[in-house]
Amino acid sequence: MTCQLQVGFARRDITPPPGIDLSGFGFRFGANLGSLEPLEVGGLAVSDGDRTLLLLSFDLIGLTIEHLAVLRARMAAETGVPGTNQMWACTHTHGGPETGVLPSMGERDPDYLNSVEVAAVAAAVDALDGMTSANLWLASGESYMGANRRSAAFRPGGPEDGRIDDIDAAVVVAEFRDPGGNPIVTLVNYSCHPTGSRESVSTSDYPGHMRRTVSAATGAPSLYVNGAGGDVNQRFDGAGYRSVSNARHHGVTLGRTVLDLRSEMRPSTTAHAASASTPADLQYTDPISQVEARRILAEGQRALEATTGTAQRLRIQSHQVDFAQRVLDWQPSDGPDLTVDIQALRIGDLALVAIPSEFFSADGRALRDETRSPELMIAGWSNGLVGYTPTRRAMATGGYEVDDAHRWYGHHAAWNPVSGDNLRAAALDSISQLYGDN
Prior knowledge:
Largest sheet: 9 strands, mixed
Mean pLDDT: 93
Low-confidence stretches: none
């Protein structure tokens, strides 16, 4: 027996024009030269008659927590949906424009970001205006399209952290269907970095190809929510380590997995909608020494004063100078260095939880094992983005996510593994709240 909700969906184009800086790769600087395919924002509106929820998914690297506060206020003013009922997810495509989360990789464009806000509000308004009766159907399975990029099999000479299949392999599919059984929108959750293509053009990468594959078969739009993929990249074979064709291949592969799971769908047993949030404290590790910071600062300043080398090399030196200065300016705190709200939404038997970090797959698996929800979608890189939150194992073995990534994110040090523990505990608490009254 199905239980009806009110559901609406709309989308808008947010493809950046040529000339805007891209983000996601430290070795790729400068403006984009065009686009391979459109970048989109999709807006899903869901109501049980008492509460209305909004889920927005962007083909963007991420959004800053500061920008998110502005976005939520603007959305609430335009739609009447309170910020507590809005979830802002990002696919984390590395073929999207710089938004302020990785300031060392490019300049954010305020006019473009304002156009994204306008597009998001327009998609949400249309979704709310177009709401219609719908039933929720759910299924879950697995895909090993992604691979543990910290494993020796994936990257010889890397941190050798686990097996190549040590990932969060869950594929969760939620489809809203009208009373006649026709799809309205298909929502998909998987956990993997969209880093298939590194050309100097904007691209939605594999999430866009996945959406188009599913939509072509169902005749309805699809929305993608990326998950606990902080240590997961697409699985590549042979010499084609990154390419446009690889991004397409993996998106189509994931899309076919989703289509196969549609035959296994079961109806949600409830039509309850709810939201909840719990604060989580983040704490930095100890930074490099002041002596080392001064050495990096002096070396970088000398290179910049000499104005020799490529523009890319000079940009990297400037990035190192900024990092060293952050270390020298940092003052220890007695309390948490940052507190974030971990939000969860409930739609029938489906729960979604937003994690504002590059959440590791081990934490994602643990969260799925411990949750009360029949089906769980983890929205990593969502409701803000503060960088990687490494596990204890990752911290012990090092690698890019531990040793270097925080510099690109504008931090003076990496996040302590306790931060990831706190995120997971807060996520569990928020999900538990969703099921406390129904």
